[in-house]
Amino acid sequence: MIELKSRFVRVSIRIGLALIGIAIVIVLGLIPLYIRKQRASSSQNGIAAYPAVLYIWSGQDISVSNAADFVAVIDFNENSSTYGQILKIVPLVSNASYQIGQSRNEPHHSAISSDGTYYISCGLLSFLLQQKQIFIWRVPQNVQDGPQFLYALDVQYGCPDEFLAIGGAKFLVSMMCNKNGDSPGNVLLIDAETATVTSYLNNASAFVDFNPHGFTRLNDSSLFLADYIRPVTLFGNDSSKILFRNTVRYVSADGSLERTFQFNFSNESRETSGVGQGIGFMDVKSIPNDSQKRAYSCGTNDNILYLIGPGITEPQPVFDLSQVNNYVKRISAGLISVSSDGTRLLMTFQMRFIILFNITQPKYPVILDVFDFCYDETLDSVPILNSDTNETTSFREYCANNNNITGSHVLLHPNGENRFIVVNYFLKAGLAQFAGTRSVHVFKLNEQLTNFTYESRFNPNFQSNYTSQQQYLTFHSLNAYPHHVQYLRL
Ligand SMILES: *[C@@H]1O[C@H](CO)[C@@H](O)[C@H](O)[C@H]1NC(C)=O
Ligand SMILES: *[C@@H]1O[C@H](CO)[C@@H](O)[C@H](O)[C@H]1NC(C)=O
Ligand SMILES: *[C@@H]1O[C@H](CO)[C@@H](O)[C@H](O)[C@H]1NC(C)=O
Ligand SMILES: *[C@@H]1O[C@H](CO)[C@@H](O)[C@H](O)[C@H]1NC(C)=O
Ligand SMILES: *[C@@H]1O[C@H](CO)[C@@H](O)[C@H](O)[C@H]1NC(C)=O
Ligand SMILES: *[C@@H]1O[C@H](CO)[C@@H](O)[C@H](O)[C@H]1NC(C)=O
Ligand SMILES: *[C@@H]1O[C@H](CO)[C@@H](O)[C@H](O)[C@H]1NC(C)=O
Ligand SMILES: *[C@@H]1O[C@H](CO)[C@@H](O)[C@H](O)[C@H]1NC(C)=O
Ligand SMILES: *[C@@H]1O[C@H](CO)[C@@H](O)[C@H](O)[C@H]1NC(C)=O
Ligand SMILES: *[C@@H]1O[C@H](CO)[C@@H](O)[C@H](O)[C@H]1NC(C)=O
Ligand SMILES: *[C@@H]1O[C@H](CO)[C@@H](O)[C@H](O)[C@H]1NC(C)=O
Ligand SMILES: *[C@@H]1O[C@H](CO)[C@@H](O)[C@H](O)[C@H]1NC(C)=O
């Protein structure tokens, strides 16, 4: 079923083999026999909880003295006594002569190169302060040591969003806007080895209303690009003027624009969340192995899941996601993850829900499971701290006081893993005040991939009981804004 063959997994196995027996044993205090036993414990369809670490790219509130955006290294070995804890943090360090600012970058997305040697991360809003926007780090042999900062890059666009590793040390990155926060943005090709940046698109300056956010690359190297928002409208003071985009583009392998899919926007209150103008496409992800090369994209304001493809004349609305909330349309910051065998889709929705679909028949997605961060009973026993007040509360109470928005946004489901990671923080800037609970959570899928459960053991967020244990670093104690996550298998 789920295929275990990501490039990264192969690299990890290579690095992992070198480490087994010595490094892991020393660092995590495990005996070799224990590890072998665990490796053998993978389930029938090949998914299992593999020993790993997470790199979480996070902002830090500027009220903290010497505040610095940082990478948190988290123990992701469920059999370790420090499972779910922050092992260390690696802060950015300001370097004024090189325009590197350690804070206020608004840490956004990240990626690991296909060859496993580079970690790359970006600051969505670094450009507003004329700070460098893209940070290149070395992934050490002992991945638990955390990334080592190498250098930062600036580019002539603004609002870097998603990275995609495309072989060797090369990445694509979507830039949502120009340096005025406006259209056109671009898709750039970065080579971390040579520190070079080139435009991946032909003629991007001629693209109209071009503000690319999420994107996806097909095996033939063509791209789908989702247009999200005109960023400058978030820095006005009238939320009705926020302008979301109504297009998804298809770009051929040589970087030329082939198609622009137009979506119909309606002002009817029942058909939109009512925030600003337009639909807003935050993400688009292709269906692996689909002969028609189709992809899914979801509207921020209309809450509709659409199917598009090079051979589809009009975008096809295939599912009204608002049905998980009694057809109440709310603004959503949903990112999409499609399993490598193309049969499952996981996504965050309305900054509150997680939805698991069976997409075996792409035109007829079927919901298999839904999780509600606001009112799911399993969270009743999970206390959280409200970062804005430092008061212990429950998710239920938090939601009642915060418009039902926990900030659920980034979702990472690594290939072959039975766990996936959800980050509850979207953005706190200008008119976009969606900080949510500023926490990171893990869920475990069952073998049949038909449901998933909350992993309460995983908690890098807040320590609710200081008396029984030593105090340790948490996202709360760090006053953090965790945004994006990478998974590095040991
Ligand atoms: C690791 O921990 C999990 C969850 O606690 C448990 O189900 C599993 O059996 C453990 N694996 C080994 C090899 O002990
Ligand atoms: C600033 O960056 C430059 C170039 O990478 C480096 O040579 C220099 O040592 C850095 N300065 C500090 C204070 O880190
Ligand atoms: C660039 O865009 C302009 C304006 O749309 C068009 O006339 C021109 O043919 C394009 N060039 C390429 C190489 O696509
Ligand atoms: C906000 O509104 C006020 C008064 O309506 C106006 O003077 C000001 O320029 C606006 N600020 C921005 C950033 O648009
Ligand atoms: C929606 O309504 C706003 C004002 O309420 C208007 O400016 C805009 O043109 C309308 N958009 C469409 C697509 O009807
Ligand atoms: C690309 O090709 C690989 C190997 O044939 C396959 O496993 C994968 O699913 C394909 N991806 C897409 C998006 O079709
Ligand atoms: C958009 O509107 C046009 C004209 O009303 C209609 O023909 C088309 O099917 C609509 N497209 C979608 C994706 O709803
Ligand atoms: C998923 O959908 C396919 C096609 O409709 C169906 O055959 C299969 O049984 C479904 N799987 C689950 C777990 O619902
Ligand atoms: C929050 O969600 C609950 C349960 O779905 C609902 O009853 C309540 O009206 C919602 N509140 C807001 C402000 O949307
Ligand atoms: C998940 O699915 C499995 C297999 O169908 C079932 O045994 C289990 O009870 C389900 N768990 C939940 C929480 O629904
Ligand atoms: C805190 O830990 C102590 C010792 O393990 C335990 O007795 C106590 O009940 C715990 N308190 C809470 C609120 O969990
Ligand atoms: C909450 O606690 C954090 C960490 O101790 C601290 O940095 C922050 O200032 C506190 N916030 C408030 C509102 O008290």
Low-confidence stretches: 1-44
Distinct small molecules bound, one entry per kind: 2-acetamido-2-deoxy-beta-D-glucopyranose
Number of helices: 4
SS content category: mainly beta
Q: What's the total count of β strands? A: 32
End-to-end Cα distance: 23 Å
Helix content: under 10%
Main β sheet profile: 4 strands, antiparallel
Oligomeric form:
single chain
Fraction in beta strands: 35-45%
Strand order of the largest sheet: 3-2-1-32
What features would you describe in this structure?
With 490 residues, this protein is mainly β. The chain has a domain of 141 residues. Helices cover 7% and strands 37% of the residues. The strands form 9 sheets. It has a 4-stranded antiparallel β-sheet with strand order 3-2-1-32. It is globular. It starts with 6 loop residues before the first helix and ends with a strand. The structure holds 2-acetamido-2-deoxy-beta-D-glucopyranose (NAG) (12 copies). The site of one 2-acetamido-2-deoxy-beta-D-glucopyranose has 4 residues, from loops.
Summary of the model, kept short:
The chain contains 4 helices and 32 strands.
Labels describing this entry:
490 residues, mainly beta, four-stranded antiparallel β-sheet, 4 helices, binds 2-acetamido-2-deoxy-beta-D-glucopyranose
Topology:
Elements: H1 7-19, H2 23-28, H3 32-39, E1 52-60, E2 70-75, E3 86-91, E4 107-112, E5 118-123, E6 134-138, E7 148-153, E8 157-165, E9 170-178, E10 186-191, E11 196-199, E12 212-217, E13 223-227, E14 247-251, E15 257-262, E16 281-286, E17 295-299, E18 304-308, E19 316-320, E20 336-338, E21 344-349, E22 353-358, E23 366-372, E24 384-386, E25 391-393, H4 395-401, E26 408-412, E27 419-424, E28 427-429, E29 432-434, E30 439-445, E31 452-454, E32 480-489
Antiparallel strand pairs: 1-2, 1-32, 2-3, 4-5, 5-6, 6-7, 8-9, 9-10, 10-11, 12-13, 13-14, 14-15, 16-17, 17-18, 18-19, 20-21, 21-22, 22-23, 24-25, 26-27, 27-30, 28-29, 30-31
Bound molecules: 2-acetamido-2-deoxy-beta-D-glucopyranose (12 copies).
One 2-acetamido-2-deoxy-beta-D-glucopyranose (NAG) is lined by residues 446, 448, 450-451, 453.
Transmembrane segments: 12-35
Keywords: Membrane, Transmembrane, Transmembrane helix
